[in-house]
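Whether sequence alone determines local backbone shape is best considered at the level of individual chains. We regard such an encoding as a compact summary of how the chain folds. The sequence in question and its structure tokens are set out directly beneath this paragraph.
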Amino acid sequence: MRRNLKRYYGAGDLHFITCSCYRRQPLLGTARRRDLLLTVLEHVRKRYEFVVVGYVVMPEHIHLLISEPQQKNPSTVMQALKLGFARWVLAQARRRRNPSQASLFDLAPQHIWQKRFYDFNVWTERKCIEKLRYMHRNPVKRGLVESPELWRWSSFRAYSLRETGRVRVNEWEVLKMKIRPPAA
């Protein structure tokens, strides 16, 4: 794992983020888990006041295209998203555990996410469109669906069908204009 990872925040760029499940396991392999992740994402979006330009939830990873948040930075957003989701999943696993079974055979996940995430700054419209297309075509390329609108866990339906999903897409009103004080 790279220790000298540099993140570039503060310029107002969009951020294309990729985050993988622990050891690329399909821990987002069920509709219920993907729905839960989107619910947590919407909660985090509201809390930190950022714009979700696009997203896709795959069985073993996610892609997000987001603005810089009004509160904190994209690293804080990802920490809140990963932690919020992991707490729900691990709590569900603990509730389902049968105390009469030996813990050696317990198949509940201990980790949900890889420690890091990949972040690519997007500052041109062309690159933004490229990243959106990549995300929206991902389920088709992987053979999960025949066409992008059939995958409910992406922002494609918000764009093509104007559908309001679990996550608000392109809600730019959340960004507040930052007014600099006059120079002395």
Q: What stands out?
A: The first strand starts at residue 14 and ends at 20. Residues 74-96 form the longest helix (23 residues). The beta strands are 14-20, 52-57, 61-66, 118-122.
